[in-house]
Amino acid sequence: MRSIEAAGLRIIAAAPIITSAPLGPSRRHYANGAVLVESTLAPDALLDILQGLERAFGRRRRGARWQARVLDLDIVLWSGGAWSTPHLIIPHPAFRSRRFVVGPAARIAPRWRDRVTGLTLRHLATRLDRPRPAP
Q: In the structure, what pLDDT confidence band is assigned to residue 27 with cuts at 50, 70 and 90?
């Protein structure tokens, strides 16, 4: 969090850290959280800063996707709505199905509305927490 602020981003809110099982072949569990930041930067410039922070913490982007990593910072939502470049898509395409993303995000911005589904983060989190019928 201090590194995010030192990079010139203002943290408005931060969710408690939760633990989640990995997606893909990694065997380690991850600590996940969410922060709401204020910035005048466009998403691609913000992504450059976040990837610089990942490198500062020892992340190296090489080899296969889905491998264990020291730090993974994503831009999941943006107040400007949708954003799409070859390197960044907002909203994050898979965020609605990931409890470890939606849960922390709903803790800090429960009324934030997903412009694709029209649902708030609170509603999306409730859907993910709802028990599913057995097949």
A: confident
